[in-house]
Amino acid sequence: MRTLDLGGEWQLIREATGESVPAHVPGDTHSALINAGKIPDPYAGMNELGVQWVGREGWSFARTFTVTDDFLKEEQVFLSCDSLDTVADVFLNGERIGSSDNMFVRQRFDAKRHLARGKNEIRIRFGSAEKAAAERAARLPYPVPHTQSPVQSQHRNLVRKVQCHAGWDWGPCLMVAGIYGDISLQAFSDVRIDYVTTEQRHQADACTVIVSVECWANRAGTYELAASLGDQRVSRSVTLAAGINTPRVELTVSNPRLWWPNGHGSQPLYDLSVHLGGDSASKRLGLRTLQLVTQEDAQGLSMVFRVNGRDIFCKGANWIPHDALPARESRERLDHLLSSAADAHMNMLRVWGGGKYESDDFYSLCDQKGLLIWHDMMFSCALYPATREFLAGVDAEVRHQVKRLRDHPSIALWCGNNEDVGALTWFPESRQNRDRYIVDYDRLNEGTIGRAVDECDPTRTFWPSSPSAGRGDYSDNWHDDRRGDMHFWSVWHEGKPFSAFLEVTPRFCSEFGFQSFPSRDAIRTYASPKDHNVTSPVMEHHQRHPRGNSIITEMFTRYFRVPQGFDNFVYLSQVQQALAIRTAVEHWRRLRPACMGTLYWQLNDNWPVCSWSSIDYTGAWKLLHYAARRFFAPVLVSGRIAAGRLEAWITNDLDREIRRTLTLTVFDFGGQELQRKTVETKVPGGASQMVGSWPVSELTPEPSEAFAYMDTGDAADGVGSEVFLVEPKRSELADARVSVECGQAGGGLAVTVSTDKPAFAVSLFAPGIPGEFSDNCFTLLPSSPRVIELRSRREMEKVTREDLEQALVMKHLRATY
Ligand code: BMA
Fold first, then answer.
1. Average pLDDT, stretch 492-496?
2. C-alpha–C-alpha distance, residues 277 and 188, integer Å
3. Residues 154 and 130: beta-carbon distance below 8 Å
4. How many CA atoms lie within 13 A of 664 on its CB side?
């Protein structure tokens, strides 16, 4: 196979005027216009509103390239496009060679007869996806509604494009068009490999890998098929008919090193390469077994991911595209986000159905880091049509993506969509005529998506929707705690207190969340200091939930004393978010094995915004992400107050028994020790146990003047964990004097933090210095100063101690009011 890469410098032409600007491919319309100075950055201020016209126009990407004789000597030459976004006609030297209207399908257009030796021109004309969607809507026999966000492109559900490009309750509306991934001309005379897929058969000391090579043979014949896996090699002759064939070979690895999710073992990857008739392909395999165990039990139906025979408690978050402008995505940013997930002991991410099938980099990084993927298909929060054309497009999409991705060991499950069963009850049209819409839903979901998944990946479970109770169950499983996965949104959308998290026993909670404001650095990218007020128009523009800021503020009044000033407001919103998610996760981890997974909403942002994310658009960890590193730790010490008693729990996700000495100390807010209890305990592997419980009234007569602190003294478990005996706002916190001193530790910069009285949610920020601290948002006791290291991400210039001293901001709870 000969390849001519067409990525690089193109021109972007505005169809209406013929005006052109340089454009990089892979890339998108908006990014090219920003780079050319034609439109302002839509992430700053309220610029997004002024660039909506871009998505309503037609645009062409064009370039010239040179083709050699050698290339044209091959019998077949085709144009391969990984992703054309969205409604595209492709022209070679002025002639239309094909079209596409689904950015999730790899397109291959026959190109040979349109090419000339020497100079050629390619032009890809994109019509407005928004206009195409409106035209389709007008032709539908009945309306097919979708959710609305404050800035919204209508009928997003009628075009096969990243659904959140049209606006979401955390994302801008930027209806980009563009060319993504690889675009190249490919030439061959014998065989083209389309997909390599594998199946593993695990025996006691060996794993046999069956390799299927889906290929296209230009003519019938006998070819050599050679494959290698690790240090194993096989080759054999295969006879292919003209057209599509799927020859197979088998390789056996003895004593395989198994691939494990993060926290359960390592992630060895075996190189697989295949050569056939002049074409070749390679990938990296992880050898492992994975089952989703759904078994009837006393509570209902279990939902457990079992890897290599071990039941895994899934800990993680939901993933959205990491930039609303595709040209700004990068492997480096993916690596930071995914490393941050692994660093916080996550072992699963859910690729959410309003985004996209991600880049190859994304999946290979997940493979390397042991992050399992719950993979939605790209349908979200809407009803969808079930016309013949729509279903045919989806069929091609799902078959392509599943065959493309299925050999990644990280992928754990294919799920039909996000919340589309629930959506049946959201719109007047579907409430009045549920039958019509549920038939359409089923045609699309079971009829097309489910069938394509079953046929293209028999090794994995097809889960119909998130949330759902599994195949064949059409109930809205939103808050069902007997079976299936749950999206628990009562605390955010319904405004219930955090204690509502303690009232449910999800089998697997795949969404729940609470918002906070992003870092000071992120806010500065969109709001100038004069707008640093949460109800300024700019700040409200970067809050896409209509009641978002009110919910944050109202929740402050339940738990905290009202903070003073903008900076404290922002800080406290992050403390509050961390408390919300910690409350839920600690509880649901205590419930194992009834509950076996918690994925909070959401890991990342696609622009700078106030949202449910734990890492903001600049890559900065919000305080929630630091808290996650503690509440997702393999051994978790947690406390809760129930029925007037303080309970101490140890949750052990390791596969072996642990012994711990748990110390519970009750301090007054001045730091005086009032009580100390010590418990010797053993907790089996994969179990959670209450290891002690005491009536609060015995611990202190004045719960508003004291707090409890639990600690195992084992460094691996992290620092201790505080339990307030009444809400923080009712606790008489002392005016602690917290001091910070910048210095060196662990080969880098560090901050020593100490205090004269107990201080809570002690947090360090270094605006302008991208990087993470080794811990943050912790309880600081006078007896235990802490040395917190800074891991800077600023590679080019070294951050000095003076830089850190200048930038450093320290906050703690008592200092906010
Ligand atoms: C969900 C998600 C998203 C949404 C989030 C916050 O249920 O699936 O659609 O952004 O809640 O409202």
1. 94
2. 9
3. yes
4. 25
> How many Å apart are CA 686 and CA 23, to the nearest integer?
53
Query: Which residues are CB-neighbours of 549 under 8 A, at least 6 positions away?
Result: 534, 535, 539, 540, 543, 610
Residue that has been written with the tokens 């640093």 in this structure: 532
- For 310-346, b where at least 16 C-beta lie within 10 A, e where not — what string? ebbbbbbbbbbbbbbbbbbbeeebbebbbebbbbbbb
pLDDT in tens, 754-773: 999 999 999 999 999 999 99
State the distance from the centre of ligand 1 to the C-alpha of 418, rounded, in angstroms: 9
pLDDT at 796 over 60: no
Position 130, amino acid:
E
Residue located nearest, by CA, to atom 12 of ligand 1:
169
pLDDT at position 797 is: 65
Question: Two tokens at 121?
Answer: 């021109």
Bridge-partner residues for 710, per DSSP?
664, 721
Please tell me the least confidently modeled range out of 98-102, 620-624, 659-663, 717-721.
717-721
DSSP 143-187: ---B---SS--TTGGGSBS-GGGB--SSS-B----EEEEEEEEEE
CA 343-348-349 angle, to 5 degrees, is 95
Does ligand 1 have an atom closer than 6 angstroms to the CB of 604?
Answer: no
Strand partners, 95: 92
DSSP-assigned letters across all residues of 510-566: EE----B---HHHHHHH--GGG-STTSHHHHHTB-STTHHHHHHHHHHHHSPPPPHH
Backbone angles phi, psi at 531, to 5 degrees: -100, 10
What is the pLDDT of the chain when averaged over all its residues?
97
CB contact at 8 A, 563 and 816: yes
The predicted structure's pLDDT at residue 471: 93
Rounded to the nearest angstrom, the gap between the alpha carbon of residue 97 and the centroid of all alpha carbons in its chain is 36
- Ligand 1 pocket, 420 CB below 6 A? no
Provide the token pair at 797.
Answer: 């210039």
Q: Is the pLDDT of residue 131 over 70?
A: yes
Please give the structure tokens belonging to residue 706: 């004291």
pLDDT digits (tens, 9 = 90+) for 394-438: 999 999 999 999 999 999 999 999 999 999 999 999 999 999 999
Answer yes or no: is the C-beta of 319 below 6 A from any ligand 1 atom. no
CA distances to 58, 221, 350 from 602, rounded to whole Å, are 34, 52, 9
pLDDT at 794: 75
Name the DSSP letter for residue 296: B
419 lines ligand 1 (CB under 6 A): yes
Coarse DSSP helix, strand, coil percentages of the chain, rounded to the nearest 5 percent: 25, 35, 40
Phi-psi region of 670 (alpha: psi -120 to 50; beta: other; left: phi over 0): alpha
**Residue 53: strand, helix, or coil:** helix
Q: If you measure from the C-alpha of residue 318 to the centroid of ligand 1, how many angstroms do you get, rounded to a whole number?
A: 10
Q: Is 383 exposed, middle or buried (0-12, 13-18, 19+ CB in 10 A)?
A: buried
Residue nearest to atom 6 of ligand 1 (CA): 169
pLDDT in tens, 31-71: 999 999 999 999 999 999 999 999 999 999 999 999 999 99
Q: What percent of the chain has pLDDT over 90?
A: 96
Helices (H), 185-260: none
Write the DSSP assignment of 450-494 as a string of letters.
IHHHHHH-TTSPEE-SBS-S-TT--S--TT-SSSS-EE--TTTTT
User: What distance separates the 2 farthest-apart alpha carbons in the chain?
Assistant: 91
